Amino acid sequence: MSSMEERMELGVAAAPGSSSSGLGVGPVGGALDAGPGSAGLAGIQEESGLRRDGSGSEADPDAPPKKRVRQQEGEAGKLEERLYSVLCCTVCLDLPKASVYQCTNGHLMCAGCFIHLLADARLKEEQATCPNCRCEISKSLCCRNLAVEKAVSELPSDCSYCLKQFPRSSLERHRTEECQDRVTQCKYKRIGCPWQGPFHELSAHEAECSHPSKTGMELMGILDEMDQSHRRELQLYNGIFSLLCFEKIGFTEVQFRPYRTDDFITRLYYETPRFTVLNQTWVLKARVNDSERNPNLSCKRTLSFQLILKSKVNSALECSFLLLKGPYDDVKIKPVIQHHVFSNDANETEYALLPISDSVECNKLLAAKNINLRLFIFQIQK
């Protein structure tokens, strides 16, 4: 047998003893590194599904897949964060707290921003449009999205006191009744204690509160200041009750309609049609921000009004009057009694602020096509 044939027989005999790790035994028993062929074979085995477990047996094809590695929050973000960007208002970019409106193309707006857009359009004498797609919006064209409202109510939100997360639907109850860090007041506030602090410190403060140990004179001074505000409220209601005892009382529903001035820069104002109360003809006018040059640039908005007597009178007509919300409106108005002596030379009252609570209520009025209020006029008999 030739030397070549001997070497071939030795190679065949060494093959069965080769290591599973890819190391073979050469003709002289030396260790040889695995060549590229072993790596290719491993790749073929993986592609054909012949993966083996640690014991060397083939993996069970019916076994559940291994748990995927969780992606980093910086790459994909939490589900809540992604939903925030989907469900947020397109105007203020914040999650709605109450009603959610959508334009005809489905873009979402919270109730406050929706009303603000309508009010801005009224001031600019333009058609209100969606800030996203520029389609026309109005109370008749837009509708509420109840699905989004319910979805937002289930999203977690941080408590402003304890910073823990709760569903938005239960957050208010937690903040007002359950949170140990909610702001509360001392039970001796009725005698002037100004302390405010977290609920879990309330019992410790009340045990050390100094107001129960104050002298009678000190408490009388504190209580007198607190009673002054109550007196003003009581005076208002007593004044209304006394007006209801007058002989001549008239009231009517008034409707303010928007108009424009003839100036180079037009201003929005409101005026009612002529109406008759107490056998006299009257007109109400109202203006925005006391005729400010550009009220659409202001964040704070107000309405002021005046009462005008259109009839001719033979003698002075002394009247008290007040405006209240109409029977079908939800605007919040605090009653304020106005007083004026009307005559042919003084037939207009001074402009007085419409006693609405805040700018949000003012935007509600501006967003409406008409403002419906109820006017009471009381004639004082000489």
TrEMBL record:
Taxonomy, superkingdom: Eukaryota
InterPro entries attached to this UniProt entry: Sina-like_RING, ZFTRAF1, Znf_RING, Znf_RING/FYVE/PHD, Znf_TRAF
Zn finger limits (TRAF-type): 155-193
Spans annotated as Disordered: 1-75
Biased composition (Low complexity): 10-22
Span of domain TRAF-type: 155-193
A Pfam short name: Sina_RING
Protein name as annotated: Zinc finger TRAF-type containing 1
Organism: Cyprinus carpio carpio
Biological classification of the source: Eukaryota, Metazoa, Chordata, Craniata, Vertebrata
